[in-house]
Design brief:
With about 280 residues, this protein is mostly helical. It is about 55% helix and about 0% strand.
């Protein structure tokens, strides 16, 4: 078991990974929202571009099993079919007319709109406008994932990884997490890193885990920022020890409210920069 940091208050890999996975384990699916967006959490995305934006903070992930709200701000408009039908379904969903939205999402999904496929799957999963139907949700979530929608790929992988399905298949989850992570999906990057750390669904590889934690940390995932810091503090697994870099990553996690990161930041500040130790309250660096 890889120890996350040395010294007092040491935390095992299992404990820290539990923290890293809290948001994505809290619900099967999360809304593709930016860290600053907090309203209308249960609304579907506009149909112009159904490729979901990676989240910028793990805390934003702990929402509900809801159809997706927002498309990637920086993405070009897609040429997805049935955009008008999808927009009509979104309007009805937002108005609380779930039976109509369900039917309209299905119509657009049949025509190949991957956002409609995803949202239809979510309504089937949640029992919105219909009794919950997991087999139907799985079918349509897979279609959206196969259409290269990163958010759907992550969500489909979760089905095999968290017990939602009767069958657990970490190897299948790994395939879909990798596809989504390679497209920059932050929560998929965390899930993939966790698998490499645990040796679940793939060979245990601490060095490869670091690669994906680093990518998630670059996107602002708090727990990944902490984990990256511990790699730089401890060294090994292909990482050269660098206490200054470790201190900067602890500062980033501490600035997001991680108390363990604050403790490590203060300890390293006292060690490396005693003149700065009082007070040693970090800002996001």
């Amino acid at each position: 078991m890889r120890v996350i940091h040395k010294g007092s208050g040491r935390m095992s890999t299992t404990s820290r990974l539990r923290m890293a996975g809290t948001a994505c384990a809290a619900s099967l699916l999360w809304l593709a929202m930016t860290a600053t967006q907090s309203a209308a959490a249960a609304s579907p995305a506009t149909p112009a571009d159904p490729q979901m934006a990676p989240q910028t903070s793990a805390s934003a992930a702990a929402t509900t099993h809801s159809p997706s709200k927002r498309a990637h701000k920086g993405a070009k408009h897609s040429t997805q079919p049935a955009q008008k039908e999808t927009q009509t379904a979104i309007d009805d969903y937002q108005a609380g007319n779930f039976p109509a939205a369900l039917s309209e999402f299905k119509e657009a999904a049949d025509k190949g709109n991957r956002l409609a496929q995803f949202n239809y799957a979510m309504m089937q999963l949640n029992g919105e406008g219909t009794p919950a139907n997991l087999p139907e949700a799985e079918i349509w979530l897979k279609k959206a994932a196969e259409a290269n929608m990163s958010h759907a790929q992550y969500a489909y992988g979760r089905l095999f990884d968290d017990g939602t399905l009767e069958r657990l298949d970490p190897g299948e989850a790994h395939i879909w997490f990798l596809k989504a992570a390679q497209q920059g999906h932050m929560q998929a990057q965390v899930a993939l890193a966790n698998q490499f750390m645990d040796g679940r669904g793939t060979k245990q590889d601490f060095a490869e885990a670091f690669v994906w934690y680093h990518k998630a940390a670059d996107s602002g995932d708090m727990a990944s920022e902490y984990i990256v810091a511990t790699y730089y503090e401890r060294g090994g697994d292909g990482v050269t020890p660098n206490l200054e870099v470790a201190r900067r990553w602890y500062a980033k996690a501490a600035a997001q409210g991680d108390p363990a990161a604050m403790d490590r930041y203060r300890q390293l500040t006292a060690q490396l920069h005693p003149e700065e130790a009082q007070p040693a309250k970090p800002a996001a660096q």
